[in-house]
């Protein structure tokens, strides 16, 4: 689909609800608009190889078990790419703490930077 004749606007329209939680558009309309413009500036043919590589990479969950450092996973509750069940599996496999941010999608760092920073700060303070 990406490498086909779709336009950059169609790419942006398809990606916005996947990358961002529904409240992002209401809570931060200026930033949401800027992100849509940024996505619209991408050439779908240039994005296609990256998407293919991500899809072909496969599951890397087993690698997390080898991480010796303490981990925290900060994720959006409305993430369309990492489901709650998948997040639970990641946390269990990695023996990681999980911070779920309500009304937040896949791009938590952009959508809720203060909350992400606070979660990381809390995690580091507890160490």
Features of the shown structure:
127 residues; mainly alpha; two-stranded parallel sheet
What this model shows, in words?
The chain has 127 residues and is mainly α. Helix content is 60%, strand content 8%. It contains eight helices and two strands. The chain has helices at residues 8-19, 22-27, 29-40, 44-57, 61-64, 84-94, 108-111, 113-125, and strands at residues 72-76, 97-101. The chain has a two-stranded parallel sheet. Helix 1 crosses helix 3. The longest helix is centred in the middle third of the chain and has 14 residues, at 44-57.
Topology:
Blueprint lengths: L7 H12 L2 H6 L1 H12 L3 H14 L3 H4 L7 E5 L7 H11 L2 E5 L6 H4 L1 H13 L2
Parallel strand pairs: 1-2
Q: Unreliable segments (pLDDT under 50, ≥5 consecutive)?
A: none
Number of helices: 8
Placed side by side, the strands forming the largest sheet appear as 1-2
Mean pLDDT, all residues: 88
Q: What is the alpha-carbon Rg in Å? A: 16 Å
The dominant shape is globular
The largest sheet is: 2 strands, parallel
Structural class: mainly alpha
First-to-last CA distance: 46 Å
Total strands: the figure is 2
Helix content: 55-70%
What fraction of the residues are assigned to beta strands by DSSP?
5-15%
Helix and strand pattern: HHHHHEHEHH
């Amino acid at each position: 689909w990406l490498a086909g004749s779709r336009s950059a606007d169609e790419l942006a329209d398809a990606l916005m609800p996947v990358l961002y939680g529904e409240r992002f558009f209401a809570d931060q309309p200026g930033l949401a608009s800027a992100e849509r413009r940024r996505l619209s500036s991408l050439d779908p043919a240039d994005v296609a190889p990256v998407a293919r590589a991500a899809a072909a990479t496969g599951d890397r969950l087993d690698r997390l078990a080898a991480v010796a450092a303490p981990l925290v996973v900060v994720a959006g509750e409305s993430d369309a790419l990492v489901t709650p069940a998948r997040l639970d599996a990641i946390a269990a496999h990695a023996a990681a703490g999980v911070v779920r941010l309500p009304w937040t999608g896949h791009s938590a760092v952009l959508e809720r930077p203060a909350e992400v920073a606070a979660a990381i700060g809390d995690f580091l303070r507890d160490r």
